[in-house]
Amino acid sequence: MQILLSKIFSKIHHQEDKLSSQMMSTAKEAYQMTLFLNEMLCTIKVETLKNKFSDEQQEIDFFKNIKPQILGKLIYYNKIFRIETTCPVNSGKIHQSYYENELKCLKIKYRDSICNENFYRYYRSGRTDRDYTYFRLGQINYHEGLNSDVFETDLTFSTYYDNKIAHIIANELLYTYLLTKISPDEDRDMVLINGNGNKDISWTNSQNALIELVYALYASNSIADRKIGIRKLALIFQVLFRTPLNDIHHSFHRMKTRAGSRTAFLDQLKISLEEYMDKNL
Fold this sequence. Notes:
Layout: H1 5-21, H2 26-51, H3 56-86, H4 92-113, H5 118-124, H6 131-134, H7 161-182, H8 188-193, H9 207-219, H10 230-241, H11 248-256, H12 264-279
């Protein structure tokens, strides 16, 4: 049995891009991604239990690198759905304090139950000497005083430690998401005042393509020598092209883990420009 991480990433990113292009609410997008990832994980579980692993290294790779990526995103999107559907208001001080409290809870959880564990340091340091123990089925050592979560884990499809990596991944994604929520755009209303004359200008590519362009301009110091923040720069493009850019940091994080080229839109821009140049020689 062989499951390629690149194919998994490709399927996940395709679904994320598909949902992002539909301009749905964050809660609805998170819900749809939760359903998608849960179905993907169930399908892979059936395949894994049926076909088994060809060797120990394939088993280690699956439980260390492949399954945690799927489960981590599943946990993340489910948390986003729960956070967004319990937010009391859409703006104001209560809205701000709600997300600040969520971030505080995340930090407490990290401090109390993650960062002090030996496994966390093992994983973060990139070690591999105990992979045989951590990422193979039936190797759990109860003498290590594991959390009671282990007794609720399906040990036919988990080594227990793959779940820990999944939670680390989910918490990293959630941390980035919450930071964007508690740092609202500055002077949003003032920027919007100047957007009335752009009614005939529209962005006709995907939302992710525009975010990729915005980040490229920001990273290259091409606008204001990077003296304005990325969110304000994104807001300018939103006004100019009259298109919403939701959770740009979240989208950028997804771009960093794309299968294939991480700069797909910029690559296509280069190709299109060169073809246009050749056509007009």
